[in-house]
Amino acid sequence: MQDRFVVSFADGAGTYAKALMRLELSLKQVDFTGIFKGINDYGHIGSPLHKNSPGAIPYAFKPFSIKKAIEEGARYILWCDSAVYATKSIDPVFDHIKKHGYLFFNNIGFSIGDYTSDACLDKWGMSRSESFNHPMIMACVMGFDIEHPQARKFLDLYIGAVSDGVSYPGSWTNEDLQVSNDMRCRGHRHDQSVASIIVAQMGLTITHAQQTYFAYDAHKGCVPINFDKVCLWSGGIS
């Protein structure tokens, strides 16, 4: 039974659906032999809407999509935002997940304190001063071996937090101090803030993105990138 899943989600907003199709096509072009689970229906995964609706929870579709993949038999899961696409074999990514149990990427110098609400920090028992000492991860690409105890604990916490009413909600910006009275805080990053706190509190290893498997198109020429190794990229689509 095939147990390697690449999981993604896109609703009908903007160009996300088109980007999801690009991701699927790119996986075929690099001969990915696992299962691609591209989801476009909130109801299919039992997720609240992303925004612009009563009861909406930003990025709740992500933990709900991962949970659905687990229910459908996934052992090794690579979450990719719809804007991600592959340019070469992603087997090394799954090899990393199998060896280490999980995969989280650094976020180029941003800290948890830069983009996490007061309410979320309070919920997880982390002070604002401490939050600036921990790096924020990039939740656009994450990997899990669901039978690895640390990965499973992370997922239990990450998925559970979506329904606590505090951890995920919050404004993208802090221009009017709507998520923090600390002006150093720039906004809230929802599931990414939660994931980063869990990674910090569990002491999980963070992998250098641009020197291993992942980079943004916009990183080219701005930060050092190992083009021989990077196999996943993220960029807009027209």
Task: Write structural notes for this entry.
By secondary structure, the chain is an alpha/beta fold. The chain has helices spanning 16-29, 42-45, 61-71, 91-100, 118-123, 128-131, 149-160, 191-202, and strands spanning 4-9, 35-39, 76-80, 84-86, 102-111, 135-145, 214-216, 232-234. Helix 7 (149-160) packs antiparallel against helix 8 (191-202). Helices cover 31% and strands 19% of the residues. It has a five-stranded mixed β-sheet, with helices on both faces. It has one domain: Spore Coat Polysaccharide Biosynthesis Protein SpsA, Chain A, CATH 3.90.550.10. Strand 1, helix 1 and strand 2 form a beta-alpha-beta unit. It is built from eight helices and eight strands, in the order E-H-E-H-H-E-E-H-E-H-H-E-H-H-E-E.
Strand percentage lies at 15-25%
Q: What's the CATH topology label?
A: Spore Coat Polysaccharide Biosynthesis Protein SpsA, Chain A
Number of strands: 8
Structural class: alpha/beta
- The CATH superfamily label reads Spore Coat Polysaccharide Biosynthesis Protein SpsA, Chain A
**Average pLDDT rating:** 96
- Cross-sheet strand order for the largest sheet: 2-1-3-6-5
Number of domains: 1
Major β-sheet, in short? 5 strands, mixed
Write down the CATH class: Alpha Beta
Question: Could you give the order of the helices and strands?
Answer: EHEHHEEHEHHEHHEE
How large is the radius of gyration? 17 Å
